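To: structure subgroup
Subject: Chain for Friday's discussion

All,

I'm putting the inputs and outputs inline so they're searchable in the archive.
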Amino acid sequence: LFVVLAGASAAKDFHGMITLNESGAFLWEKLQSPITEEALVDALCAEYEIDRAVALTDVQKFLSIAREQGFLDD
């Protein structure tokens, strides 16, 4: 089980945490250090042996949701 603790305004919507699937947890871990979107896509492709187009879509969706919910700064 992978969880991310929410802070401030996001906490009321998520009761203080959200769960992540394996690939979400992988991306979250990569975001603990400065990394570009392209490097996230490369890492996802290497880790899960998926098509680059699929990885790009997944990374963009993950980042978009994380930003919208206040888990990431722009």
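Points worth raising on Friday:
The CA atoms of residues 55 and 61 lie 10 Å apart.
The chain has four helices and two strands.

D.
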